[in-house]
Amino acid sequence: MRTHAYVVRVAEDPADQEACFAVRKEVFVGEQGVPEDLEYDAYDAVAVHVLAVREDDGVPLGTGRLLYGEAAAAKVDGDLTVGSLGRLAVTKQARGLGVGVALVRAIEDAARARGLAAVDLHAQTHALGFYERLGYEAYGPEYPEAGIPHRAMRRAL
């Protein structure tokens, strides 16, 4: 199997943002059965989106987003010093290549650049180990989100 190098960047132009939405549709709507009307929300307009693409041909491999300020406040108990990492998705072809780790670190860098002290996220329970390896700690009870079991997690920056 041939592996590809990839790059992760902030999705600043409309084409990159559309690529982020396409990855989310493939992973969350297509693979996991999340209703499309739940996958996309008003926060998409104010989030910092990050995109991983194959270096040689630009094929989208993964995405994630950071909410901060008022957009994140409702998700992190009103704490304006905490960002919210969400919508982390990696395509089947890119899993196991380190793309998810690179996306999380890029989101953390974006959070630091905005002066945030920590990043919070809602992890699907099957992904708890992934986030724990990156320094996140689970807190609170398990709960359903879009019909999928989740736990809240946080990492100080």
CATH class: Alpha Beta
Alpha-carbon distance between the two ends: 36 Å
Number of DSSP E strands: 7
Largest sheet: 7 strands, mixed
Within the CATH hierarchy, at the fold level, what is the topology? Aminopeptidase
Structural description of this entry:
The protein is α+β, with helices and mostly antiparallel strands and 157 residues long. The chain has a single domain (6-156), classed as 3-Layer(aba) Sandwich (Aminopeptidase), CATH 3.40.630. The protein is 30% helix and 34% strand. It contains five helices and seven strands. The protein has helices spanning 14-31, 36-39, 70-73, 99-113, 128-133, and strands spanning 6-10, 48-54, 60-67, 82-90, 118-124, 137-145, 148-156. The chain has a seven-stranded mixed β-sheet with strand order 1-2-3-4-5-7-6, sandwiched between helices. It is globular, with a radius of gyration of 15 Å. The mean pLDDT is 94.
